[in-house]
Amino acid sequence: MPVLTVREALQQALHEAMADERTFIIGEDIGHYGSTYGVTAGFLEKYGPERIRDAPIAEAGIVGLAVGAAMAGMRPIAEIMSVNFSLLAFDMIINHAAKIYSMFGGKFSVPLVMRTTNGWTQLSATHSQTFDSMFAHIPGLKVVAPATPADMKGLFRAAMADPDPVIFIEHTLMYGIKGEVPDGDYIVPIGKSVLAREGRHITVVTYSRMVHLSLQAADILAKEGIEVEIVDLRTLRPLDMSIALESFKKTNRAVVVTEDWQSYGTSAEIATRLYEQGFDYLDAPIQRVNFREVPMPYAKNLEQQVVVTTDRIVAAIKKVLNRS
Amino acid sequence: MQKRRGATQAEVPAASSLRSTMTSTPFSRARDQLGDAQLVELYRQMMLIRRFEEKCQEMYTRAKIGGFLHLYVGEEATGVGAISNLQSQDHIFTHYRDHGHAIARGLNIDELMAELFGKDTGTSHGMGGSMHFADITKNFWGGYAIVGSHLLLAAGVALACQMQKTNGVVMVFFGDGATNGGEFYESLNFAQLWKLPVVFVCENNLYAMGTPIEVHSSVKEIYRKASAFDMKAMRIDGNDVLTVREQVAEAVEYARSGQGPVLVEAMTYRFRGHSAQDTQKYRSKEDVEQHRSNDPVLIFRKELIDAGVSSAADIDALDAVIDEQVEASVRFADESPVPGNEWLTDSGIYAAPLATATVDPDLV
Description:
The complex is a heterodimer of chains A (324) and B (364). By secondary structure, chain A is an alpha/beta fold.
C-alpha cells in the first residue's frame, strides 16, 4: 500500500472529487497563490479558474455562494483557510447550511463540504483557536476531524458523496504526517469511530492531531508496563461512542484528549457520554487534557504551557491509574 | 420623506435610455405587448396577495397562525411586476416578508395557508412557517429570515446557473434595511466580479423594521450603493405594477445576456406594521393614510376599468373568486393533519440520516 502524507492523501481525494463536473473549489488563495498549505497546489493549472475559484477575502460569501450552488445541483468545496476565519461565515454555516434541509421540510438539501484547518504555531490569540464543539453543537451539520492520511482520503470521499453539509476539519500541524493509504476508491463512512491502538489498562478517547500525541504517550507508558487503548472518534457529529464505550467497559478508566478549551468543549460531551452510558463500569474519575483556558499567547514559553503535550497526556493517564 | 409615485428612474451606468415615444405610457405599452387578459392576470395576482394577507391577519388574531407574521400589503406591485418577467428556469430568493413573492410565482395558496397553520400539507411540512415558504418545483428557494443573508445564497445559485449554462436568472428581494450589512456588500462584489446573473431587487419601503432610512443608511438612495461595484443600477416606482414590470424586464434581460447583475431599487411602502405585533410608533397615522390613498392594487384596478380592459362587473366577479379561493385555503389548512414526530428525528434533519447507536433514543 502506498505511503502518503496527509497533504498527499487529501490531494488525491480532491482530484478524485474534481472528476465530478459538478465540483468546484472556492476559497482564498487556493489558485494563483498556490495554496496556503499546499493542498490545492497545481489545481488551477489543471482545472482552470472556472472550477478553482480564487475568492475575495469574504468568508460569508465563500460559504454562502457554495451553499447556494450546492442547493442548485453543484457539489462545491468551500475552503476556509483557517477555522478562525470561519467565524465570519457562521451565519451561513449555522443559520443556512445547517437549517435549510429541515426548515424547508426536507424538500432540498445542501451537499456542501467546507474544508478548514485547526492549528497553532506562535500565531497568538486570533489564529490559534479551534471551534470543533461549536460546529458539532449544531443539528443539521456533519462534522469530521480525521487523524490519518487514509482517513483523510476516505472521509473526504464520504463527505463529497453526502447530501448534507459536512464540516471537514484538518490541522496545519498534520499535513506532513505519513501513513498507508489504499489506492483507488476508498471510502470511510461518516459517523464511525475506530480503535487506533489496543490496550487493556486505560482508554483514551480522542480525534484529529491528538490521536498522534496520544499514540506517543502510549509508547512512553508501554515502557512502564501500562497498556493504553486509544479510540479515534474521526467524526464529531454524529458522534459514535460505541467503540469508546466498549473499551471503557473493559478498562474502566478513561482520559479524553481534545485540542480545545475544556469548558463546554468537545471533551465535555465525550466524557458526559462515558459517564451517562458507562457509569456502572467506572473505577475512577475521567480526566481531560485540553488547551489551558486563555487566549493563545504569542511567546513560545507561554504557548507551550497552553497547548496539549505528550507529557500532559502521560500525566493525566497516570493520575487516573493512580500511578506516579 | 421620499416622493413616491413617479419617482425618477436613474441608471448607473445608463444602459438603455431609449424610452419610447411621448405618447406611450407603461400602461399602453404593456397593453400592446401583453394583451388585456395578461393585464387582468397581473391584477388578479395583486388582489390575491392582498386578500390572502388580510386573511392571514385575521387568522393570526384568531391564533390559527403563530410566530411572526410580516404582511406584504401595499408592496404588491413590486413583487408582481418584477416576478412577471421571470421564466420557468429562473430562480427566486426572498426575505421573511415572502407571501407576496410566493403567490406571484404561483405557489399554491392552500399549501401556503397550511404552512402558516403549521400543517403537514404546508409547503415546508409546517417546519418553516410564515418566513420560510418554498417550492423547489418552481425554483422558489424560499423566504429567509436573517436580514441580508439570502443574497449570498442567491449569488450561489446564480453561479450554478452560470456554470451549468442554464440561461437562468436569479431574482432576489430584500429591503432597504438589508443594504447596510456586510452580506449585502459581499454579494454585490461577488456578483459583479464574476458577472453572475442576479437581479437584486431592493424593496425600499423606507423603514428597516421601525428605523427610518434617514436613521439607518448613510446613503438614502439605495441604488447608488451599486456604484461602488461598477454595477448597473436603477431606481423605479415600485408602486406601479407596469412600470415595475417594464423596468425590471430590462434588468432581467441584462443579467440573462451575461453582462452581470443589476441592482433595482423599487420605491414602495408597507401599509401594515413590520409584523403583526408592530404598534408603529415610528410613523404617523397621517403618513400611512396618505400612502394608503395611493394604493397600488386599487389604482391598477381603476386603470383597468377606465381603459376598458375589463368591466367593473368582471373585476368584481374576479374579486369574488379570489375571496372564495382564500376561504378555501383556510378550510384546507384547518382540515389538514399536523406534521408527524419523524421531523424531530435524524431523518427530519438530514437528507442522509446517520443516527448512531450511542444516541440516547430518549433524547431524539
